[in-house]
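Figure-free illustration: sequence to structure, shown twice.
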Amino acid sequence: MPIAFPEAIVTAHELFGETQKYVKGWERFQKQDDASRKADSKLVIDIENMIRESQGLPLRSGKDHGATLEFEVTVRPE
């Protein structure tokens, strides 16, 4: 069953989750081996789920999160 991906959640996922690996002390997630990719993915989804929970949104399992996932984001002026 699909879940909502509001723009704020997508932004938080990328800003707080995906950039975590570039913070001093988290460099181990920059490695490209399978174990590091799985750990990185879990961390990113855990961060996103904290934000989802605070907003009363359904949590992600993370099964759909991986290096090969592609999606298009359209930004419209308000």
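We now fold a second protein in the same way, so the two outputs can be compared directly.
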Amino acid sequence: MSTSDWQDAGNILCIRPDSLGDVLMCTPAMRAIKQSRKDCRLTLLSSASGAAAAPYVAELDGVISFPAPWIKSGSARERRWC
């Protein structure tokens, strides 16, 4: 990716399909992206657990929840046991 590609990016997808804590640890990086590209749309792709942080991260414009198979569900009824 060249510098001009980065400057032309209108939509940026931040992929962190892990748990809530992992997403929170990435908030400084998301903040830096948003500061360098104020006019871009920043979307987070994460597990349901990680996506729960989205309302508390002001830099995010959207969130996509991905059912990551390595993240245990919060509900015992929804949990799959191997």
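Summary for the second example: Residues 75-82 have pLDDT under 50 and may be disordered.
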